[in-house]
Amino acid sequence: TMRLLARDLHDQEVVEANFLFRAGGFSLITADARRNMLMFSYTPKQANASTVSSSSQHDVTATPLKLEADLRVSGPVHSMLRFRVPTLNHASYSDRTILIYITREGEIGFIQTVTEKANRPLRWLGAKMLEYLPHPAGLHPMACRTEKQEGRAARRQAPNHIVDLDEVEKKFLTMSVTERKVISHSSGLSDERVLNILHRQEFDTAAFF
Questions:
Q1: Residue 96 contacts residue 84 (beta carbons within 8 Å)
Q2: What does the pLDDT read at residue 47?
Q3: What is the pTM of this model?
Q4: Is the CB of residue 24 less than 8 Å from the CB of residue 41?
Q5: DSSP characters for 134-200?
Q6: Beta partners for 47?
Q7: In angstroms, how far is the first alpha carbon of the chain from the final one?
Q8: What confidence tens digit (pLDDT) does each residue in 129-153 have?
């Protein structure tokens, strides 16, 4: 039995799709022919509540997916693989998953969900690093990593919920101790807290990379 739970109100030429599970809900990851990857969130409890409140089929099909983040990659996505994230002691698996994607240009990357406790400090840190550090050719790293429709009408801008962990981790760990402390403190964080968060994210993906 197939049932329409939610939909995106914008058209998209999807070439690959998969799910990313987390506690209390899941996200739908779609990739289109224009090298865009979009993340939509769906929370079953909220959707079921709105469904039960009305018996009209129109109300069910009109439930929109919530756009959480967008990302632009080097080429069209060829395939996606989903794995469960192990716990700290590797004795079992957590309720979170990691999604590995492969593009036709040979790029291999991953998308994983992080807790709000880790996501917010990493976004603060990433914003400060973009502000303080020089960029090659003066190009803003995130400006070329957001959705582009190339002549088609663009959808509304996605919230800034995504963190380029590769960009943040590599640059932060290659800085001197003094530079790390300056940027950490300007973000309202301590150097030790940032390192703990980065090491935890690295542990979650150590089994895959």
A1: yes
A2: 47
A3: 0.71
A4: no
A5: --GGG--TTTTSS---TTSPP-PPPPS----HHHHHHHHHTS-HHHHHHHHHHTT--HHHHHHHHHH
A6: none
A7: 38
A8: 888 877 776 666 666 677 776 655 5
Distance CA 95, CA 155 (A): 31
In degrees and rounded to multiples of 5, residue 128 shows phi and psi of -70, -35
Distance, in Å, from the CA atom of 160 to the CA atom of 143, rounded to the nearest integer, reads: 12
Structure confidence at residue 199 as a pLDDT band (50, 70, 90): confident
Give the C-alpha separation, 12 to 34, whole Å.
10
CA 42 and chain centroid, separation: 14
The tokens describing 69, both together, are: 């983040």
* The residue type at 80: M
DSSP 19-72: EEEETTEEEEEEEETTSEEEEEEE-HHHHHHHHHT---HHHHHT-BPEEEEEEE
The residues, any chain, with a CB within 8 Å of residue 61's CB and separated by 6 or more, are: 4, 7
Q: Read off the pLDDT band of 80 (50, 70, 90).
A: very high
- Pairing, β 108-112 against β 93-103: antiparallel
d(CA 78, CA 31): 9
